[in-house]
Amino acid sequence: MSRMQKSGGIAALGEALIYIIMFVFYGAYFSYPSNSTVEEKLIYLSQNQLPLSLMNFIGYILFGILLVVVVQSLHARLKVHSQTLTQTASIFGLIWVGIIIAAGMVANIGLQTVIGLSVTEPEQARAVWLSVSVVQESLGGGIEIVGAIWMILISIIAIKAKCLPHGLNYIGAIVGLVGVFTIYPADVFKEIFGVGQIVWFSWLGICLLRTESEGKQH
Predict the structure, then answer these.
(1) How much of the chain, in percent, has pLDDT values that exceed 70?
(2) Whose CA is closest to 214, among 159, 161, 167?
(3) pTM of the full predicted structure?
(4) What is the average pLDDT value for the chain, to the nearest integer?
(5) Closest of 140, 126, 57 to residue 98, by C-alpha
(6) Whether the Cβ atoms of residue 57 and residue 104 lie closer than 8 Å to each other
(7) For residue 154, with 0-12 CB atoms within 10 Å meaning exposed, 13-18 middle and 19 or more buried, which class applies?
């Protein structure tokens, strides 16, 4: 097994684990008091700055770093079958990396700025937090079309070249299509995309770890 394929497999499993961590954190632990007063919201953010900053780092910045490894691993594996299409897919993958990491940096700097303003100017702090939330959501999860296109292209290449398990490829194509649908403002598409990526990244990671350097499976 080549070192790049092994690294890609480990990184893919890491991506799936990050999705699970984020789902657990925001589903079971973090509960933003949306119906509370401005002061109560700012106090809540201040009290939870450390876990929120950590989750922003894990869910965006670390996710983006691991994604670089996955994109490179798949590029090396698939370019022998379709160099042009693989290159196009990798471009979308790396753009997704940049968007995700940028979202994480905006989220953490925005959180720090808002907490600093909350002491003297709570109303301005609330306005800044709303602006930060819009930018963060726009970059890092509100619309998943860039990552979705990457998944679809990777799946098309693998289907045509008969690389990777067929089930994995079709799941990737379907999940990618759902990601495209996130342009419509409905949370259900984002949730399906997230759960689908857990399955896809997990299966992909196992495949990359099990196969040899030429990566041909039937």
Answers:
(1) 93
(2) 161
(3) 0.88
(4) 88
(5) 140
(6) yes
(7) buried
